[in-house]
Structure formats: C-alpha cells, structure tokens
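Suppose a colleague, Dr. K., hands you the sequence of a protein chain of 175 amino acids and asks what its three-dimensional shape might be. Before reaching for any lab equipment, you can write down a predicted structure in token form. Begin with the sequence itself:
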Amino acid sequence: MESLLGCVKPDEVPELPDASDSGSESSQSDLDDVFDLRERLRDTLPSDYLQSDRMQWLAAVRQVASLLREDVTLPLKPGSCKEVFTDVASARLLPTWHCAFRGCIASSAESSEQENHERGVWRHIWHTREHRSDLTRTARHFSLVEPHLHKNISVLLRTQLHWRRKSETASLCRG
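The predicted structure, expressed as tokens, is then:
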C-alpha cells in the first residue's frame, strides 16, 4: 500500500455494522452508509498523481467550466446578457444552439444559416477570438496539446481564414 500512496496515509474507514445486521429497516437504503464517497482534498494527493494526465484533464475541465454560465442548457432571455430563459408557459421558438460562455449572447437566432446545433456552436466558439483563446490557453496550460497537433491546428486555421477571405472577395465581386 505504501508503494501506491507514498507517505500519504489512507483515510480511516469507519466501523460499519455487518450487512446481515440491517434489521427490518427496509426503507433505509444500504447506499446511504456503504457509498459515502468524497473527493480527496488536493493537498492530500501525491505530487506525481497531481501531474497525471487524468488530473491535468480534470483541472482543465474545471477551468473551462468556470468560464461558462451556471445553467448551460438554457439560452439567455432575448435582450439579456445574464438572465436565463425560463418562461415555459408561453410558446416560443428557442434557438437551435446558444453559447454557454458567461456574458456571450450568441445563438442561432442571430444567424441566417440553418445548421446542425453542434456545428453552429463549435463554429461560433472557434471563430470567436476570446472563446478560442480561452480554450487553447487552458489546453496549453494543462499540457493537453501535443506540439505537432498545435502546429497542424494553426495551419488549418490559416487555411480556413484564407479560403473564407477568398470566398468573401469573390462574393463582393459578384455582388
């Protein structure tokens, strides 16, 4: 056990009654006393575990979650940058997608294109400089980007920008 935990002592396990001693309290679930799981405090974990891929990923997820609104599944009320749409009594067409980043009001309602919700939200996130830089900064900070992959993404973005500018120029010439 010491080879796994190093100098960290495992949490003490409380004495529990034998499962056969549960008595006649059938309404009381065994889950209440058997599965009392809690996350360990960060400062009690070994340093090499804190540097593991799993913990880096978890820290990155928490960092990104801190950038999002409290209720990411609901769009904002029309005309509001903070208040979530909660009116379920009136009939309204909700946007196909909406941005969950705190303070961002973008949604499919602003776009004339009808597109898949996943494509729409990712297109918005990746083409919004602030969102893209937040995500890439987080990925770099927690070492979640391979150097060769980052280079390939940069080339892809430059190529997309080139073709977008080229198509905009062509449409200006036609129009």
